[in-house]
Amino acid sequence: MTGNYFLDALEPEDRDAVVRLLRPVDLADGEVLIRQDAAVTLVHFPVRAQLANVIAAPEGQHLETAVIGKEGLSGLAPFMAAAPSAWQVVCTVGGDAYVIPAEALRTLSDRRPGLRHRLLALTHFYQAQANQLALCNTYHRATARLARWLLTTSDLTGAAELRLTQEQVANSLGVQRTSMVEAFGALKSERLIRHTRSRMEILDRAGLKRRACGCYDQLHRLAIELKVLPGNR
């Protein structure tokens, strides 16, 4: 097994065909894997790394629109369309991953219907995630969004302890630093998380779920239904 949920859930013949072409890599925090408006030449399958789709506006603002972890792979929609990416893909939590040339994976998906079906199911999940996060970012309070983000990050990296600063999380959520400090303070005071300068740990997952907005449960249920994530956490 590879440690990447998408790869490990494939039928054995499909998985073996992909794994033969993989190369292990160690991704660094802040590393840009796909640039906005650039072709997708490499596809990354995170294991302990976490990636994010980040859209940049002409005026200079940036916003995270989707999170990618060990459930999937980078640049999926533009890869499937063989088109330039409309967003950049950035490593937000450094760690190990696998990489494959995009053209090689595209050739395999054309030849293997089972692999292509799983890629399409994951594309559907990522589109649902982007739409759900657009609603969440518009209507929900910073503390609920932070709780949702921490739970999702833990699900997708498989870790309860995360190497992140408040500033990194604020940038990911598109929230002002002062609001993020208040949100972290609320979760710490309720002993749901432990946080130092560059590390945070989930102490009470059930309590954090109660603090999160309904977007977390909604997306998590969909991930289970589509077999994007295994079982329940």
What can you tell me about this protein's structure?
This protein is of the alpha+beta class and 233 residues long. The chain is built from ten helices and ten strands. The protein has helices spanning 5-8, 12-19, 76-81, 102-111, 113-139, 142-157, 166-173, 177-189, 205-211, 214-225, and strands at 23-27, 32-34, 42-46, 50-56, 62-68, 88-93, 95-101, 161-162, 193-195, 200-202. The strands form three sheets. A four-stranded antiparallel sheet has the order 2-6-4-5. Strands 1-7-3 form a three-stranded antiparallel sheet. Strand 4 and strand 5 form a beta hairpin. The longest helix is centred in the middle third of the chain and has 27 residues, at 113-139.
State which percent range the strand residues make up: 15-25%
Tell me about the largest β-sheet.
4 strands, antiparallel
Cα separation of the termini = 20 Å
Widest sheet: strand order? 2-6-4-5
CATH third-level topology of the largest domain: Jelly Rolls
Fraction of residues in helix? 40-55%
Name the structural class.
alpha+beta
Indicate the mean pLDDT: 91
- Number of domains in the coordinates? 2
